[in-house]
């Protein structure tokens, strides 16, 4: 069996939780949900791009990139390059005892070595504090510790010095040219993804870099010498001792334990309820070790992890199972809508079916759901028709798409708009507008606002968003407009001010968007939501709650009776379909077609295009990735991706319509 060494990836696992080392060491035994998180994957792709850009800025010759060789081959190649007096190396390998690192970039000038760890995180030297980047600094500290010891063993008596840097996306810098992001394309190489630079990337050499080295050597030295005021990550232990302990634990494949707590609820080493892979659940193992009386079936009971918001207070009070949730001394007042602490009590009651809790909410319980009709009516009576449901798709990438943009500056590339009008017999619904930018190299934000303004300025109806994202993005674009020379910028800014707010400035637009999420949190709950209020969780809950919605949308009326900009009248669809196993309504997001359908290609042919394009566009991470893919694609593929994105965003605003329509029917009946 090949030797296993303690790498910087294993070190990062140990910093998060030492107990994870065993699960990380044995991927063939343990489930890992992090591997399936599309949003995290999209962030990882940004990391590949930043890493490749850093090599360009630092002028590392491509021949000096060591790559994914085995331990011994990597070490030998590094030592061969190290013979040069001055050399720049990417992925240089160093070993000290059972610890092994590949440094992102090193620059050797005689005995002076600069160690660069590349991170796709952002940093603004004008506003931020390097000390706050503790997790990343710990990473490069471990590498420096290994390098210093390795060099001492390899070259005894040689006065090598190692200075540590973090290379990060610098938010104080603006992209000097268009298309930096497009210079580094993500490609699939076997089971791995990597970034491949375009020939034009050489033009970045000598320009002001948007990824910048920051000297963190003093902080690293304080950590290594244990003169570090913030030692939480090291569990109050000596740095060298802890590295040796973690390395020995990992390399000997020993299962050590760590105290459990609310931090465990984000553990990725868990099996999904529907998982039949046969993999083990590390989360359960930790808790069953900590509490010997816990049984396998106890994990099916509602825990405090099912609550909203922070759980630390409940854990500190000794609460683990919601069955033990105490009753409030002052009762519950949900007349104007439920408050956060009372919502957690409601969640506990609904998930455990405790009569003493449910009796406190009895007047607003309707079947399996909590629905506060009086509080809803008070809100809905204030809404002005026609109602406008809007949703944005945005991107914020480390390497900017456009000249003049900063790293992680937001790009609004798409919106969808459904409109609900009052009629003589009730109301009508229409997918009334949409916007998507498919033009490569074109900064879309100002055109986006112009198109949105044209959609919403025709009346004074109430505008709805779900959560704060749309408000945040529009306020950000207003700042971009202020710095621009757009001829209509004053008009566009005035429009944004009308429909947004800034709480800290106590500014509230006269037509400020209504947050449908806030309405849900105050007035509705279904036990299938557990502790989530995401629209992708609320939507199936509503569809399974409402017989009215089921009856209406089980018919193929979407595209005919309800007009759509993407669903033709010749092929209307039914949003309601039922799971053949349990009879529940299927989540409509699972019904979105793959991109291959738009291309008219078989799945086999699609495999040759790109993995990202063959996926359903069914969550925010995939949408972000698809937009990035648009910037690299040919016209045929771009058109297919655009169609998939349009369908996805249309469903986002139709989901808001479903929620509103359920509320409307329950409050007003057929009026």
Account of the protein in words:
- With 671 residues, the chain is of the alpha+beta class.
- 37% of the residues lie in helices and 16% in strands.
- It is built from 22 helices and 17 strands.
- The protein has helices at residues 8-16, 20-25, 38-57, 71-82, 134-154, 217-224, 239-251, 282-290, 312-316, 340-352, 355-358, 373-380, 445-456, 469-482, 489-499, 516-523, 535-545, 547-553, 595-599, 603-606, 620-630, 635-668; strands spanning 86-96, 99-109, 112-123, 161-170, 184-189, 192-197, 211-215, 365-366, 369-371, 387-395, 411-423, 426-436, 463-465, 501-502, 507-508, 514-515, 524-525.
- The protein has a five-stranded mixed beta sheet with strand order 1-2-3-4-7. Strands 12-11-10-13-16 form a five-stranded mixed beta sheet, sandwiched between helices. It has a three-stranded antiparallel beta sheet with strand order 8-9-17, sandwiched between helices.
- Helix 5 (134-154) packs across helix 6, helix 17 (535-545) crosses helix 22 and helix 21 (620-630) packs antiparallel against helix 22.
- The protein is globular, with a radius of gyration of 28 Å.
- The protein starts with 7 loop residues before the first helix and ends with a helix.
- 39% of the residues are buried.
- Residues 603-618 have low confidence and may be disordered.
